[in-house]
Automatic annotation (TrEMBL):
Signal peptide: none
Protein name as it appears in the record: STAS domain-containing protein
InterPro entries: STAS_dom, STAS_dom_sf
Domain of life: Bacteria
Stretches assigned to the STAS domain: 1-95
Transmembrane segments: 28-47
Keywords: Membrane, Transmembrane, Transmembrane helix
Amino acid sequence: MAANGEIDAANAGPFADYVKRCADCCEWLILDLSALAFIGTVGFSALQSISTRCIKTRIQLMVIPGLALTTVLRICDPDSRLPLVGSLEAALAAVQKSGRPLHAVP
């Protein structure tokens, strides 16, 4: 799943709800945020909520950050708790190594 543009107070809640609904029907969730122009702290809180949900439901989450998210992570996630991966290729390689098939979520 990919997002671009901005994640801010106006759309962080709907963004998190949508991602969580999609996550309910998969074992792996790759969230590509590399094209975001902006993400506020409320967007980071949404990502934490998504990550917590994935942990509880045993969904493997991988987040691909871009410059906007990397900047927020330096302040909000100094312990690197959000599961980051460097690229879509690296995320897909991790899924393939697991031996589980990929399924597209509409």
